[in-house]
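User: Predict structure, ligand adenosine-5'-triphosphate.
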Amino acid sequence: MVAPNSVRTMRASPHGSPALTEPAESPLLRAEGLSVRYGRQVALREVSLSLRRGEVVGLLGANGAGKSTALAVLAGLQVPRSGRLWLDGRVAIPRALRARSGLLPHRPPLHPELTVRQAVAHAAAVAGVPRRERADAVTDTLARCDLATVHARRAGNLSQGYRQRLGLALALVHRPEVLLLDEPTVGLDPRQLARFRALVRELAAGHAILLSSHALAEVRRTCDRVLVLHEGRLTEAGETATAGRRLLRLAPVPAASDLLALPGVASVEPLPEGYWHVTFKADGEAACLAALAAGGSRLEEWAPAGADLERRFLALTGSGAA
Ligand SMILES: Nc1ncnc2c1ncn2[C@@H]1O[C@H](COP(=O)(O)OP(=O)(O)OP(=O)(O)O)[C@@H](O)[C@H]1O
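Assistant: Predicted complex:
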């Protein structure tokens, strides 16, 4: 391993400037320019985001940042003042969003007198699951959410962990592809929290998941990448941790084409203040460091991508709200 301060130069690029990042899989849900106002209060300002199948994305923000509003719009429960939404590349109207997404609200409305099975069956009927498919949909959903053993218990008698899983079951019973979770871990004890996180990771295999939270530590543990919402504005804060990706800073600051020309480098993404996210080919890091060692630039930062998340969150929100 080359010590950071022994690195001196970068190789010049032998060719032009290729694309900065590799093409990503097309998003399942895409939103562009969403704005929402409540009277004079602006809740969302030109919010654009995309969610892909298989990923869990954190939506981080302080109280009143606009998280619940954003989730309600993505769930098709609230119509934005402006902006557009696409599902699988096709413009999505609220009805399509409601059919293909499931929202777990901050406080799921649970009828205390209904049993767990009755509550899920009711949600299936309301969501329009055809009558002949309902029994199977309910049984599957109870099993997926670890609720089969408590199916006959009344919702009003459940622990907070089970209440939250019932809320999740209500959001999932119509088999949506997009799952929107509004502060789902508030009030869970450490064991319930661990199980809930595991459940979300299991569900990620078949869904695109957006999870809102106040807590950076929570999204760091559960999510693949983080969006920060601050006073209605959204910013991508970065990946939580990704194998083969590094946060890099060199002095003097290189051109993207110089970075891309280094051996072992697959793609680069410019960040503010001279930082880069660099993705490596398999075993590419050693080759890249060796090439850097042969040159004259100084390596000022070489860290796992995502290690700067806290610093970036504080910069984006201008506070210690996490
Ligand atoms: N129905 C409403 N009428 C008026 N203002 C509202 C309404 N709903 C939300 N707001 C305001 O819009 C802004 C965004 O609210 P929102 O609930 O989306 O934020 P949040 O990030 O989910 O907050 P919290 O974490 O406290 O739930 C806040 O200033 C809030 O006071």
